[in-house]
From TrEMBL:
One Gene Ontology molecular-function label: serine-type endopeptidase activity
Assigned keywords, A-Z: Hydrolase
Region of interest called Disordered, as start-end residue ranges on this chain: 313-365, 617-646
InterPro entries, A to Z: AB_hydrolase_fold, Peptidase_S9_cat
Name of this protein: S9 family peptidase
Database matches in Pfam families: Peptidase_S9
Residues covered by the Peptidase S9 prolyl oligopeptidase catalytic domain: 410-616
Origin: domain of life: Bacteria
Amino acid sequence: MSGGIGTAVHVPSFAVRDGRRAVETRYVDGLPQIVAWDLTTGQRRQVTTAPLGVETAAIEPDGHGLWWFDADPGGQGRWLRGPFEGGHPRPALDGVPAGRMHGLAFDPRSGLAAVGVGVADRSRYYLGRPGEHARLVAEEPGYAAVVGLAPGGRLLATAGYPAGPAAVRLWSPASGVLVDSIPGAAGDGDGGAAWALGFRPDLTTARPELLLVLERAGRYTLAFWRQGEGIRTHGPGSALDFDTEITACWYGPGRTALVQQDRAGRSRLLRADLDRGTTTVLPTPEGTIIDFSCAPDRTVHCLWSRDGEPPRPLICYPESAEGAEYPEPPARPDRSGRSGRSGRSTTASRGTAPGGTTGSRRRELWTRRPYGQIHSFVATPPGLGAGHRPWPTVFLVHGGPHTHDRDAYDARTEALVRAGFAVVRTNYRGSTGYGPRWRDDFGHRVGLAQLEDLAAVRGHLIDAGVSEPGRTGLCGYSWGGYLTLLAMGVQPRLWDVGLAVAPVADYTAAYRATTPALREVDDRLFGGTPEQVPHRYRAACPMTYVGRVRGPLFLAASADDEKCPPEQIERYLAALRRRDVPHRVRWLGGGHDVGRDPAGHAAAWAAMVRYADDTLRASPRTADRRTSGRTGSHHPVHHTEERSTP
């Protein structure tokens, strides 16, 4: 593309009243920037040149203005607005304080915009016309986000803790009064959750309707709430009832929605009729729909990927006989170590695809345990002869924990396979895509249950002759980095190197310093706060086991990280130094998001691969195939610390 505009980060958002205009997020010189897309001419214009990039953008219903959230490395910022045709940006709404982004919604009928802002430990909701002064509608403690503004500005929907007593709240923008709320729990003692997905846009005079996903009795159901009537659903057993996680959006006029279902590391799209309770599967290639949106002409724009193929746009035509098509040529593989969105997508059971590593093999592994089967994606280097296996192995541990590794391109996998490693991505208990029981049912044994799964997969691979004892390591970002540090202390005989980026190193300290949204996640994981269940936090904390860590460890972190604050990492590093544990530290810029300091993270990733290579290729074979009783004598005691400048 001309002007240095590169591949898509997210799908486009369209002006609902002018389908000729859209806004995109695309890579420009390695950073995500906002791009205006004129569909009439096909021209794209770069809007932002933010030094840390911009992840979130929107377009006004009439297409006149573009919005983006301008955040500092710690995630604090405000919405800016610029003309679609070009010009200087200004605050999108006057009178709104800086804070964390807590959602945005437009109403095409009234022209109003609603934004949520996190200030300290409270959520505030503002309403106004673009470029004008906004007024405070309501505020409440904790984390909640704006998810919808009903036609005519009659109701404002906000979403908080999905399993809480008021997962969704409905406010009157005129008075700021709470009109109704939707509980997450079903009220039958069997748990449950609720997610709000936006108001039906074509209702201008009738009672507002809000699209919902409900978790009930171990299933996910597509439903809707209607003012004055409450929740309406077809109930268990209908085609709108799913066994694994879904998300959805309204599609065209009437009670029709598009549904994305994630299942066992892959996804599919369906068209759902909420009146009839029926669904139709849309034809899409096997792989992962990373993101999707609906254009005013009812075409569906997706960001799609699969093993060896970097994410690329895909357009579907649900109302015609046409199949899906790719509007752009394949992107060049990213060799920087940045992996799609947030570094969480993975590989699948298929031969090498364009962009993959020539001759490498991909497979899936299901490891049987009494509580279920653990699903892993495995990639191995070229070569099948006895002289090529077993291989030194790196487990790329996903974060979340409520996300999953997928059948999608991952630059880290390609880099490690090229370097001669087998690469494993495991969807441990807590992962999505396998139903509520797999996601939640591990008895608040946070971290420890996940390590049991990783150890079981490691043993399976050693028995299968894929991995070599004494040469297996862990690499993770965010919560995956947390599991890496925890494993190096809880299971020091199993893992020969740990590579952790932006980890939780001291869970109690991180809880007290992190964002309100993440504290609510931890409350659900642990079943309470550190004050309420201190024994659970202590059992799950890497600091508890730091005295058992042998190393070597490579840690990369940011001094601006609001989600996994640096102070708790520094405390962990001090404990390593006191015990002369071999480790290396690299401090980065850009906060928690790896995309905000691409050069720093690319350099850190290259250093981590070298570190793993030096460590795992130096590790001796051991007699015990399962425990790989490492002596540690081959690792020189050292500590180095580096800082990169963004």
